[in-house]
Amino acid sequence: MTISKIRITDDVELREELDREYESSSRIQLCKYALSLATHVLESIRYSDDETIKEAFRISEQWQKGDVSMREVRQAAFQIHQMAKVSGDTITASALRTVGHAVATAHMKEHAMVASDYAVRVINLLYPGNMESVKKERLWQINRLREIKYLN
Q: Measured between alpha carbons, how far is 59 from 65 in angstroms, rounded to an integer?
């Protein structure tokens, strides 16, 4: 069972359900899930297309096929975290942290759960005190991971 590394208002039972799905997932499945999650979060804040993010996604996808090194994955994730650090906006920074951890999932599968928690932080910031929105996000995450696991 993973423990959230960031402070968020969360639905503990749904996070535990996601964690169980995570535990029985391969790293490749989690990479696919995490990239899908990152796209979902960026769309939720209407973040415009960014070449650095597109390249990081491409590197993660190439790693899944065995075509790039872990060093390239780590560098791509680091670039996204640098973008978050200088973004100047808490919501954008949290969304970019989601993306950075999503890309870093290739390095360590635990990053998928951290990305999921950052996605909930984005929801907390967009809809303060709204547990229905948190539940909706966690259910989306659970269902998306299940879809990926059972399609791959």
A: 10
One-character DSSP codes across the chain: ----SS-----HHHHHHHHHHHHTS-HHHHHHHHHHHHHHHHHHTTPPP-HHHHHHHHHHHHHHTT-S-HHHHHHHHHHHHHHHHT---HHHHHHHHHHHHHHHTTT-THHHHHHHHHHHHHHHHHSTT-HHHHHHHHHHHHHHHHHHHHH-
Predicted confidence (pLDDT) at residue 28 exceeds the cutoff of 70: yes
What confidence score (pLDDT) does residue 95 get? Answer: 98
CB 133 within 8 A of CB 127: yes
Answer whether 0.85 is exceeded by the pTM: yes
Cβ-proximal residues to 129 (8 Å cutoff; 6+ apart), any chain? 9
